[in-house]
Amino acid sequence: MKGILVASALCLVIFAGAARAADDTDALIALDKQWGESVVKGDKAVSEKLLADNIVSVDDSGVTGKKAMVADLKPAPAGARYEPTDYKVTFLNPDTAIMTHGTKGMGAHYSLHVWSRKGGTWQIIATSQAIAKGGK
Q1: In the predicted model, what is the mean pLDDT of residues 118-132?
Q2: Taking the model in full, what pTM does it have?
Q3: Closest Cα partner for 22 from 124, 113, 91, 92?
């Protein structure tokens, strides 16, 4: 009997964690879209909020951190839009997720972000970007 109760409790914990992760998938995608749209606008405040202080960013120009990422933000040319596609979010645990997605249009690329939640707040702790063929 005791074993059944322990197994039942364990199942509840697992299902609760899975439900929480499913809810956080939508929240992380919304945060990524907010970040992408702010980058197009050159809005540094959103990046300041969503990028962890110790973020590591890798792209075709090298390895940088938060200070350089924020400093390099400039509004995109008129008419530019953030058009993300094919989001995939994988949770390593309830407070760490790996996100991949692509974008289409001008500046098309593929992205990988590692999100970490601390104190109830999600931030990006690592990111990498690869330009899609024809994306420049």
Answers
A1: 94
A2: 0.79
A3: 91
